[in-house]
Amino acid sequence: MNFKKTLCIILAAVSVTCAVASCGDDKSEDKGGNTAQTQTESADVAATADKLKSDITFEDSLVEFDSGKIEKILGVAPDAYKKAKVYVSSTGATPEEIACFEANDKMADIIKASLETRVTNQKSTFTDYKPEQAPKLDDAVIIVKDNCVYYCVSGDSAKAKEIIG
Amino acid sequence: MEQSNSAIRKKRVKAQQNIVTGLCLACMAFTVGWSVFAGVVSHKNAVKAALADKNTSSKAEVVSKAEETSSQEDMPESSQDENAAVDSFAPYAQEEGGHPYAVAKDTADDLSDAVFIGDSRTVGMMNSTDKPQATFICAVGLNIDTVLTSTDIVQGDGSVGTLAQALSGREFGRVYISFGTNEMGWPYTDVFEDHFTELVTTIQGYQPNAKIYLIGILPLAQSQDMDGDAVNNENAKLFTQSIKAVADKLGVYFLDCSAAVADENGYLPEEASPDGIHMNMDYCLYWQNFIIDNS
């Protein structure tokens, strides 16, 4: 009986320990899970930008912008987003460009506003200089999904919307 | 009878005890098994994350090595994934037979005191530059007739405004002025020279201590040259002579950057441009590097 009692106590202690350890593992699992999830979310904007670049036929060659150029030229400061991938015309010949952002908290609308300003400014110059490019700006795609902002100026806005989803 | 009832009762109690014991053991087994599974999954995730970080730093090392090989300056810190840098810039390594302006020989010049004022070709350089300290005041479609009044000029913070706003409030050591491509249809070069003179003297007013460089019109591709419109190499040379005349008259510098981008026949190579006029990133950098090495 004593042996049985002792065994029961030991087993109960082991199971409580395992339960607590699992709860502790849950936190690390959550961290790992959250990291994986964040990486997936972060990778999504980059993946979407790359897919827009690869799946849409652009007339121009596009160059990737770093955070400095994103701020100077698109007007989106680095503290507005966690992750971004931006491609812009490397030649200046067309208004074709792609920008995908994973915005920081409550910054999605600010990023969207900056991109809308960008479209307005580009229209102002291209309408006179190269009017054949103006329709691309008229059909510019700007989509906000949760905290992600997607922007694409191309000759195929329907395809862009399909890729962004 | 009582004995058999008692025996039955005992058996029932024992069975109940065994059931409870069995359930408890099953719960314990489940808990132990679950914690082991959670631990294994967590370990796998940690390993994946570590591998992902390792890949990222390996690719960053590749970028760094490429930069060291070409003696380029460090790129600015970015909140973005550095992986993409591998694909986004001109080849830095100057191999034998490589383009002479793939890499600026003056590696110390970061263009931090320089401002580039111009039209869409300057926009191309702005978008392609690997010198984050350089300043660009430019706009697509800008010409010397509109530059002093346009409100569409990039201000360097994502906004647009006037030339005066862009030049005020900061002193530059060097000012590079590049116009002429959009003016090749003008019938009179003396009108072009008058406007260019007015532009340069206005800029001198804003930047009295700066060295001013007037850039000759870069060549066009043969396909554009043969297109039949006013934007052709003959006019490019004609208006470039006017630019040089203005430089001589005002005592400022003149730079003919054609050598940076022209082929052996004096044309912009077809592969350099999507439309025969505007240059892709590689050629924008050749142009930039020529300026660095010659001014």
Helix and strand composition category of chain B: alpha/beta
**Biggest sheet overview of chain A:** 5 strands, antiparallel
| Number of strand elements of chain A | 5
Strand count, sense and barrel status of the largest sheet of chain B are: 5 strands, parallel
Number of helices of chain A: 5
Spatial separation of the terminal alpha carbons of chain B: 119 Å
Multimeric state of these chains?
A: heterodimer
Computed CA radius of gyration of chain A, to the nearest angstrom: 25 Å
Summarize model confidence as the mean pLDDT of chain B.
83
Structural class of chain A: alpha+beta
Order of helices and strands of chain A: HEHEEHHEEH
Order of helices and strands of chain B: HHEHEEEHEHEHHEHH
Q: Could you walk me through the main structural features you see in this protein, from its secondary elements to its overall organization?
A:
The complex is a heterodimer of chains A (165) and B (295). Chain A has 165 residues and is of the alpha+beta class. Helix content of chain A is 59%, strand content 18%. Chain A has one domain. Chain A has a five-stranded antiparallel sheet with strand order 1-2-3-5-4, sandwiched between helices. The longest helix of chain A has 54 residues, at 2-55. Chain B folds into two domains: 1-88; 105-293, SGNH hydrolase (Rossmann fold, 3-Layer(aba) Sandwich), CATH 3.40.50.1110. Chain B is 49% helix and 9% strand. Chain B has nine helices and seven strands; from the N terminus they run H-H-E-H-E-E-E-H-E-H-E-H-H-E-H-H. In chain B, strand 1 (114-118), helix 3 and strand 2 form a beta-alpha-beta unit.
